Structure formats: C-alpha cells, structure tokens
C-alpha cells in the first residue's frame, strides 16, 4: 500500500537489502517494480556505502528524479529493514533520499519498540523517520494479530489514502495479478 501510494509502478526501481524476509521484496514485485539488492553492513542492515556508490556511479539525477544509467529506469524508493532489534543509519539514508529524490519506507517489523541512537533522531522509534514505516503483525512477530500489520506516517493524507486501499482489495491486488501472469 505504501509503494502504491508513493506512485511506484511497473518498471520503477526500489532498493532493498538482501537480508530480510521475502515479504519486503514481494511488496515491490506486487507493483511490477524491480528490486535492486544490496548487501548488509556490520549491523546486518542495508549497506548504505554500497547504496551511495550505486546512486552516484550507476545513476544520474535529471529533472528531479534519479535514473539508472544502464536501463533508463527511475529509482523511486528504498526500503531499509531494521533487523534483530538494530537499525539502519537513518541520518545517512535520509541524506541520500533527499539528494536522489527517493521515498523511504522503513520495514521496522523486526525492531518494534526500538529507538534510534543517532542525532537528530535519538530516541525516536524505528519506523518514524522515513516517509512511512511498516510493521508486520504476522503470527511469528513481536506482537501479533494473527496476520495483518501497521503503517505509520506523519503524513495524515497518506494514511487516509492507504486506508482506502485497505478497504478496497481489488485495487490493492491489481499489480499482483500483473506480475504473476
Ligand atoms: C522484515 C520483515 N518484513 C515483513 C515480514 C512479514 O510481512 P507480512 O506480514 O506482510 O507477511 C517479516 C516476517 O514475517 C519480516 O521479518
């Protein structure tokens, strides 16, 4: 729902870590977008030095968007995944996001209740720094509703928009059908 809300669609690139549960990547595939994978750092989270090297060497910024040179595709979003109760360096990531016009959707499923340790985000909960944060409440999670999850965002209009998607599953799954068939 977040990816759809932020306008990520067929052929767009979304940056993801290799070390995550497949649900993170499935969300990208359901939009018929293309995941580009990066290794993890010493915190087992998205390696931002690799992300920065990719953006600065393999992409160019033109007209307020970032384009991958080899494919001409637009790099639209990044999904940092905060694993094992630890977290990505959101200071570094938000700087990259601003410079390269990326939406940041934090997958904070595995860090529920955790807080950031670096200024200016010290003490803020994981999931609350990016444009949106997502938490799975699947059966094996820190808290569970059996299934389902939670999206958090400071953008009230975004939340209202995504609530509508949630009420109308036919909209939510249209990309899914396209990517499977
Ligand atoms: C990082 C992460 N994201 C997402 C999920 C699951 O998401 P969903 O509830 O959509 O299956 C998990 C585990 O199940 C996970 O570990």
The CATH superfamily appears as Type I PLP-dependent aspartate aminotransferase-like (Major domain)
How many individual β-strands?
A: 8
> Roughly what fraction of the amino acids lie in strands?
15-25%
Main sheet attributes: strand count, strand direction, barrel closure: 8 strands, mixed
- Which outline best applies? globular
Low-confidence stretches: 177-181
Class based on secondary structure composition and strand pairing:
alpha/beta
Q: Which bin fits the share of residues in helices?
A: 25-40%
* Ligands bound, unique: pyridoxal-5'-phosphate
Overview of the molecule:
The chain is α/β, with parallel strands linked by helices. Strand 4 and strand 5 form a beta hairpin. The model is unreliable at 177-181 (pLDDT under 50). Strands 1, 2, 3, 4, 5, 6, 7 and 8 form an eight-stranded mixed sheet that branches. The chain is built from seven helices and eight strands. 32% of the residues lie in helices and 20% in strands. The chain has helices at 2-5, 22-30, 48-58, 90-100, 156-167, 169-172, 174-180, and strands at 13-17, 34-38, 59-62, 65-68, 74-78, 103-107, 132-136, 149-152. It binds pyridoxal-5'-phosphate (PLP). Residues 20-21, 23-24, 81, 107, 109-110, 136, 138, 149 line the site of pyridoxal-5'-phosphate (PLP). Residues 20-21, 23-24, 81, 107, 109-110, 136, 138, 149 line the site of pyridoxal-5'-phosphate.
